[in-house]
Amino acid sequence: MAVSSSTSELVRLDETLWEIPAATRSDMRVPARVFADEELLMAITGDRSLEQLQNVATLPGIVEAALAMPDIHQGYGFPVGGVAAMELPDGVVSPGGVGYDINCGVRLLALPLSASELGGRREPLVHELSRAVPAGAGRGGPLGLSAADLAEVLREGPRVLVARGIGREEDVDRTESQGRLPGARPAAVSDRAHERGVGQLGTAGSGNHFIELQRVDHVFARDAAEAFGLAEGQLTVLIHSGSRGLGHQVCTDHVRVMDEVGSRYGIVLPDRQLACAPASSSEGRAYLGAMAAAANFAFANRHAIADAVRRSIERVLGAAAADGTRQIYDVAHNVAKVERYGGRDLLVHRKGATRAFPPGSPEIPAAYREVGQPVFIPGSMGTASFVLAGATGAIERSFGTTCHGAGRALSRTAARRRIGGAELRRGLEAQGIVVRCASNRALAEEAPFAYKDVERVVEVVERAGLARRVARLVPLGVVKG
Amino acid sequence: MNRHRFVEHGGEVEVELEATTEAGLFEAAIEVFAELVSVDTEGPGVRHEIELSCVDRALLLADWLNELVYLAEVDQFVPERLVAFELARDRLRATVVGRREHPSHLVKAVTLNSLEYGEREGMWHGRVVLDV
Question: Is the Cβ pair B131, A256 closer than 8 Å?
């Protein structure tokens, strides 16, 4: 079956997988494949994301296929929801294939309380969260970090903070890569990136970043929910943030370097933002060292935010509630990591996509090893989010990857045309969701209808065998930068 | 005369800039940036000297906006207007005045995706995609 799209010819490979053959364009080295059903495909073909996916398929060293998850939407260079695995040592690394917000990701905390036990303290708790976690901050930031402290965080990640009494060792153990990507090179991070980052550890940022108070609405897989420590009615807090200005500057700096040197390596690109260099080159190694440092900063940032969340819980709900608040896991959305598939080492770029390793993987905490890696899929404001568990199909079909969210369906300007921030705020509050957001514009841009249906997205990844649904979480309150 | 227009983009913010002079194009970029990040209406006045070098004018425009992103983050600076501007073949020097307030951290970076800069029919045009 072939479906016409504005950009290409899509061939259906199976129930949830579609392909644009490599022969479609003379510069494509591998096919472009997207996981979707018919309805999601309609939304996906409404922007330029499949053209961008085909551009990714031209990159030197890419193996098997340029892949897209069902939440794919138009980005810059790589589409958001894109996955590309490059053969090492000489396949390329592309900073744009990781994105500006290096290791943007999500962390889920579970409280030892149910929503009914929270009672009338919902609004005070959301308000306290908004006070405790700034969107941005000035010099020194909420942690009063020195330049020397920052360099240590870049090398070691959140363990540095645990040694200073911020967060817990068990939080670090329940973080992807235990919160530390190897090979971090703080010296490859520019002075300007250091300057932007030093005041931002423990800040959420703006755009689609948020802190959401939630209730476990439904459990789909009791075994995995029990392993993760989740039960219906329980309160959770989902934290979405990344490497802030430090990571943005790392990407900016290294895209510029690769834009200059690409021609030296004979690289011809259909889009300047795909700027890249062989991973084994001096430029490639410098970027990977800086990216790892920024990723470690992002893990530490979410760790510090989680600590601030616990302190808010203590102030509103008491010390026992704070002590009993456990971190389920923390996953990265924007990174490039060396992983082994089919007996070879590959550099897997995930741009708006989540690692989803299956049961048995030594890379996931022992407590979760029988059920698979936890994955968190935020919906849009006012809609459900999902907890998934990685499945074996992810290794076989998507380089151990699943989706990362609902994925935009409308541009920000179109969202603002459809609704004002004040009206949206009233609507969410009418649903019983407490909203704290300084900017009506930012609120309107993240309106629920601006995103694809998250329920459909997670159904597709489950049917594709990439991950299985564990629990659905519904929002009680949201704090946005 | 400077103008800017937001273009439909599936995920980020894409802007077309237009001006009768090259300086106007850089001033239009200031206007767009201020529109995106300004939250308050008050704050002490601040002046920044900016100096950039690059032979590629499109990259220079991206660098200009990246400089504004940087100043917004480290100095809480929201630009208002150019008071001095000097553009040579490979170099830009400018003085920008504005306010120190509490800008939104909306704009993360300026991408090279769809980046354009040039003159046609007597007008200067630019296009940038901002990661937000």
Answer: no
Residue B99 lies in a domain: yes
Inter-chain touch B8–A411, beta carbons under 8 Å: yes
Q: Is the pLDDT of residue B27 over 70?
A: yes
Helices (H), A335-401: 392-397
Whether A32 is covered by a domain: the verdict is yes
User: Which residues numbered 28-47 in A keep a CB inside 8 Å of some CB on B?
Assistant: 46-47
Judge whether A408 is closer than 8 Å to chain B, CB to CB: yes
Answer yes or no: A404 catalytic.
yes
Asked if the structure places residue A437 within a domain, the reply is no
Token pair of A155, please?
């090398």
> What are the residue ranges of helices labelled H in A146-218?
147-156, 159-162, 169-173, 191-197
Q: In this structure, is residue B76 part of a structural domain?
A: yes
Give residue for tokens 């990174």: A335
- A444 lies in a domain? no
- Cα–Cα–Cα angle for A229, A233, A238, rounded to 5 degrees: 65
The answer to whether A137 touches A204, Cβ cutoff 8 Å, is no
Q: What is the number of domains present in chain B? A: 1
DSSP chain B: -EEEEEEP-SSSEEEEEEESSHHHHHHHHHHHHHHHH---S---EEEEEEEEE-S-HHHHHHHHHHHHHHHHHHH-EEEEEEEEEEE-SSEEEEEEEEEE--------EE--TT-EEEEETTEEEEEEEEE-
| ipTM for the assembly | 0.94
**Predicted pLDDT at A438:** 80
CATH code: domain of residue B61: 3.55.10.10
Q: Is B61 within the bounds of a domain?
A: yes
Per-residue pLDDT of A248-278, as tens digits, reads 999 999 999 999 999 999 999 999 999 999 9
Q: A–B: how many Cβ contacts below 8 A? A: 111
- Give the per-residue pLDDT at B66: 97
Q: In chain B, what residues touch A244 (CB-CB under 8 Å)?
A: 105
Average pLDDT rounded to a whole number, residues A310-338: 98
Number of domains into which chain A is organized: 1
Q: Compute the distance between CA of residue A49 and CA of residue A478 in angstroms, rounded to an integer.
A: 29
Q: pLDDT tens digit string along A65-122?
A: 999 999 999 999 999 999 999 999 999 999 999 999 999 999 999 999 999 999 999 9
Name the pairing type of β-strands B123-131 and B116-120.
antiparallel
CATH number of domain containing A343: 3.90.1860.10
By the 8 A CB rule, do A204 and A241 touch? yes
Number of other residues whose CB lies within 10 A of the CB of residue A429: 11
Unique residue bearing structure tokens 């990507």: A181
Q: Which domain holds residue B57?
A: 44-109
Q: What is the mean pLDDT of residues B27-44?
A: 91
Q: Which of A47, A74, A481 sits opposite B105 (nearest CB)?
A: A481
Residue in A268, A279, A95, A49 with CA at minimum distance from that of residue A193: A95
Q: Is B35 a member of any domain?
A: no
DSSP single-letter state for residue A382: T
Whole-prediction pTM: 0.96
CA atoms within 13 A on the CB side of A149: 18
CA–CA dist B57, A263 (Å, integer): 19
Domain span holding position A342: 2-409+451-480
Q: A265: which residues sit within 8 A by CB, 6+ positions away?
A: A277, A278, A281
- Which two three-digit tokens encode residue A332? 């990265």
Is position A438 within any domain? no
